[in-house]
Design goal:
It is a single chain. The chain contains three helices and six strands. The protein is an alpha+beta fold and about 130 residues long. It has a single domain, classed as Yope Regulator, Chain: A.
Length: about 130
Amino acid sequence: MATNHDIKAYFDKLELDYKTVGEGIWILNLEDQGVSNLAISHEPPVLFLRIKLMDAPEKNREQFFQRLLELNLTDLLHGAYALEGNSVVLVDSLQTEHLDLNELQASIESLAFAVTQHYEELSSYRQV
């Protein structure tokens, strides 16, 4: 099973900019991909990844949430859009029993890619 030490070693191998904010909790800064708030927490046996994308719009909510569900189905290789209070978040979870570098990298890259690909479209719902 991957430990906190193993996970930090993966971050180092991937040359990720991160800071430790608690035991088993890190914030990744992926500035080159436009993501500065990827939170990762390790609660054995699961690693949780979470990015707050934006607050949900006040208007056009039905169309907005329908679009999120469509994106969950068609565009996400890892993770899913979800609501946390009024915040739209992108989340993923990985089992740490057999976690390897490639699996972690794929999840991080998939979430970052989704943010860069979907943010502009999704934020337009807040302006209508």
